[in-house]
Design goal:
The complex is a heterodimer. By secondary structure, chain A is mostly beta strands. Helices cover about 0% and strands about 55% of the residues of chain A. The chains are: A mainly beta, B mainly beta. At the A-B interface, strand 5, strand 9 and strand 10 of A face strand 5, strand 6 and strand 10 of B.
């Protein structure tokens, strides 16, 4: 079975550019999570969706960050404009509400220079 | 609020040593408890889980028992290998709302 699929795996971009990270959750899962991981702050929940609806976006750092889930099989996390402090690994994860196990993608490694 | 606290790292052990990584939790309801492992350059993978008090989760020689009386879910392995070198995360999920709470992670290095 395919797991959570994220793209791109690695991205290097210049400060001020727009970055779009993509995620395809596991088929049939109805919850989707975006996390950010850095050495300084560890693993942080940015936002999560249930049935394509954003439930909690309190972890989104500022207005430069936005996330969408237009359908059950696709989500994006956008940073515009990007800044060097956004450099991190961004993980997408999905779960079945009733299953309570969360499955992670391989991550998108973002470097903003 | 709901949270997970796990022991600070990094932890360095010799091969075949006994491993314990402590994890305690605070929850308003009856959570499910998890251990995730993250190998270098990879995402987090489920290692084991337990969904109710006194349950024992086990996988790949790792074990953890859900202790309601001490609100703990300590990870143990009797004999670690170099390949166990990774970061280990304790987590809880409430059975309502599907929110997950992760600990800060404990880095383990096993030396030959």
């Amino acid at each position: 079975d395919a797991g959570v699929i994220q793209s791109p795996r690695h991205e290097v971009t210049e400060m001020g550019q727009e970055v779009t990270l993509r995620c395809k959750p596991i088929s049939g899962h109805n919850s989707l999570f975006w996390y950010r991981q850095t050495m300084m702050r560890g693993l942080e929940l940015l936002i999560y969706f249930n049935n394509n609806v954003p439930i909690d976006d309190s972890g989104m750092p500022e207005d430069r960050f936005s996330a969408k889930m237009p359908n059950a099989s696709f989500s994006t996390l956008k940073i515009q404009p990007s800044e060097p402090r956004d450099s991190a690994v961004y993980f997408c994860a999905s779960s079945l509400t009733t299953g309570n196990t969360i499955y992670f993608g391989e991550g998108s490694w973002l470097t903003v220079v | 609020g709901d949270s997970v606290t796990q022991m600070e790292g990094p932890v360095t052990l010799s091969e075949e040593a006994f491993l314990t990584i402590n994890c305690t939790y605070t929850a308003t309801g009856y959570p499910s408890l998890f251990w995730y492992v993250q190998y270098p350059g990879e995402g987090l993978q489920l290692l084991l889980k337990a969904t109710k008090a006194d349950d024992k989760g086990s996988n790949k020689g790792f074990e953890a028992t859900y202790r309601k009386e001490t609100t703990s879910f300590h990870l143990e392995k009797g004999s670690v290998q170099v390949s166990d070198s990774a970061v280990y995360f304790c987590a809880l999920s409430l059975n309502t709302g599907n929110q997950f709470y992760f600990g800060t992670g404990t880095s383990l290095t096993v030396i030959p």
